[in-house]
Amino acid sequence: MSALYYLQPPQPYSFGYDNVDGFGTRMTRQETGDAFNNKVGSYSYVDAFGVTRVVKYVADATGFHPTIETNEPGTKTSVPADAPFFSSAVEGPHPVVVKAVHPAPVAVRAVHATPVAVRATLGAPVVHAAPLTYAHHTPLSYAVARPF
């Protein structure tokens, strides 16, 4: 028995979200699609220090075409793999890295209990029995007499 499937044509849609987490990082996305299965959208990321990446894209019969905008340190404007990458990062010294502050180590003094004298009484030594021996018979020999 074969199954018959009916595929619905693409339906227009639109969705999006905007979220900020507990660390101050903001992530957004929005996308629209049409009846011809073409899509236009963007997504972005902004961390608590202001580092930003925005990707705008079009996806259609000719493929996925993104354009990236960022201010991430160490990036430069370029066009790798036919995807324009625009950087507004400042050239020059890298940002100062702030190291986490750790509390000073706590001095720990080892405390040992007073040794306790232990008197052990040894019992009688263990005696092992002699190993068992195996009595065997003398091997039999066989001979065949030759007729002359």
Automatic annotation (TrEMBL):
Record-linked PROSITE patterns: CHIT_BIND_RR_2 (PS51155)
Keyword Phosphoprotein set for record: no
Keyword Transport in annotation: no
Alphabetical list of InterPro entries matching this protein: Chitinase_insertion_sf, Cuticle_Struct_Prot, Insect_cuticle
Any single Pfam family the record assigns to this protein: Chitin_bind_4
Sorted UniProt keywords: Cuticle
One MF annotation (Gene Ontology) recorded for this entry: structural constituent of chitin-based larval cuticle
Any one annotated GO CC term: chitin-based extracellular matrix
Protein name in the entry: Cuticle protein, putative
Organism whose genome encodes this protein: Ixodes scapularis (Black-legged tick)
